[in-house]
Design goal:
single chain; 437 residues; mainly beta; Methylamine Dehydrogenase, Chain H; 5-stranded mixed beta sheet; 5-stranded antiparallel beta sheet; 7 helices; globular
Length: 437
């Protein structure tokens, strides 16, 4: 189904704030660290939201937001009108408070299953799973290098992982339900843990020249990408635990994320540059800038990017920067299709973001401990995009280029249309979505 350009969200449209979480402890007057929300995450099924609200505390809240209690929550008027006291009382026991004892820098739910992995698991139905693999877990990375792993249902601490020697800056579970956990640290290492085996020993990946800020795992669990504040993306084999190659950029990289099909890798740099890469060939397919809009806020010249994430269907991605703006981008379009740059809403320097697994909402965490929930475009991907995602999940760029199919089809399957001019790329994007708004 093809759409007219007018059917797309207008560029720069204001994102709607649908809810806000306020920290229990206010920011310290002397400006010391401690209250920052360094990480926010939704559980794989979208039923829980984890919030690192500073001072060593993680809050596990039931999603959707209308069904959680009023502890620390500031809702929009629309949200308040849909809440009743009975709903609050019936769900308050499902909220959990995890006292980690140290500043929490990173969060990750597991096991985490991609849609393909879910289908494979449902088809297999092979043997009973262990108690650990059948439980929803939350891993928390701490200031002292310890990773605490909790059971979400009970809120009980299960065990600690203790090999890191500095801040655990990033955590991510493999998207195949195998309980493989990858951790990145200020000790300049990545560590790969198998939580179903000997949890006292991890595979260590060394070679980063600086702190590991961010890492991500490809949907087929073959590649780990990591960035450490240098101008290179590090690619590692998750199968052989070896270094593969660099992707060479020009700016200091702070965040990275694979698209849901693994065909794209997006990176964010301190310099506010966003790059969409082909992780197989190392090509930079498109470069964007998280430019600030002076009409809303006067931004200092040294504002930095902080985080970037793909949406669940892979047609959008969100970026967060210290200019207090979260922006939603569409593949192939140079300008954001949504942003939150407007006055009258409490928004401080952004640090992190996470999409709800069913889409429609992105959560952002800020330096003063707040969390905002923003509406995002709700779309139904076209059949052609779904076909591309299904194919690219298991087929590399080189394999696509070797297929006996027309070049235009190869360009589409390898996202080479992203490198075209703005007008042409916008039309291709419009053919890939059906708006629900």
């Amino acid at each position: 189904m093809e759409l007219n350009p007018s059917d797309l969200k207008p560029k720069g449209e204001t994102a709607t704030l649908i809810g806000e979480l306020k920290p229990v402890h206010p920011q310290l007057l002397d400006g010391r660290a401690g209250c920052e929300t360094w990480s926010v995450e939704f559980s794989p099924d979208g039923s829980y939201f984890a919030w690192s609200l500073g001072h060593g505390i993680v809050k596990l809240l039931l999603w959707p937001i209308e069904q959680i209690s009023d502890v620390g929550l500031q809702r929009s008027t629309a949200c308040k009108n849909h809440i009743c006291n009975a709903a609050r009382k019936s769900h308050v026991k499902k909220e959990k408070t995890l006292d980690c004892g140290q500043t929490v820098w990173s969060l990750a739910f597991g096991p985490r299953l991609s849609k393909q992995a879910e289908n494979q698991r449902d088809d297999a139905k092979a043997g009973p799973s262990s108690g650990l693999s059948s439980s929803l877990l939350l891993a928390t990375g701490l200031n002292n290098g310890i990773i605490k792993v909790w059971e979400v249902k009970t809120g009980h601490l299960l065990f600690n992982l203790t090999e890191h020697r500095d801040v655990v800056r990033d955590l991510t579970f493999a998207p195949n339900g195998s309980l493989i956990l990858v951790s990145g640290s200020r000790d300049k290492t990545l560590r790969i843990w198998d939580l179903t085996k000997d949890r006292k020993k991890a595979h260590v990946l060394t070679g980063h020249g600086n702190w590991v800020y961010s890492s991500c795992i490809s949907p087929d669990c073959s590649i780990i990408a990591s960035v450490c504040g240098h101008n290179q993306v590090y690619l590692w084999s998750l199968r052989s635990y070896t270094f593969i190659r660099y992707l060479e950029g020009k700016h200091c990289l702070i965040s990275c994320d694979f698209s849901p099909d693994g065909a794209l890798l997006i990176t964010a740099a301190f310099s506010k540059e966003l790059i969409l890469w082909d992780p197989y060939t190392g090509e930079a397919l498109r470069k964007l800038s998280h430019c600030f809009s002076p009409e809303y806020f006067p931004a200092p010249p040294d504002v930095s990017m902080r985080a970037v994430r793909f949406s669940p269907e892979g047609l959008y991605f969100a970026s967060v920067a210290e200019d207090r703006a979260v922006r939603i981008w569409a593949l192939g379009i140079d300008s954001p299709v949504m942003e939150n740059c407007y006055t009258g809403v409490h928004v401080s320097n952004g640090l992190c973001c996470a999409f709800h697994p069913q889409g429609g909402v992105v959560a952002t965490g800020t330096r003063d401990g707040y969390v905002q929930f923003w509406s995002t475009p709700r779309i139904v991907p076209s059949l052609r995009h779904l076909s591309r995602v299904s194919l690219r999940h298991s087929v590399s760029t080189y394999q696509v280029m070797a297929l006996p199919i027309p070049n235009k089809m190869k360009d589409f399957l390898t996202y080479r249309t992203l490198a075209r001019c703005h007008e042409s790329s916008e039309l291709h994007h419009l053919q890939d979505v059906v708006s629900l708004n």
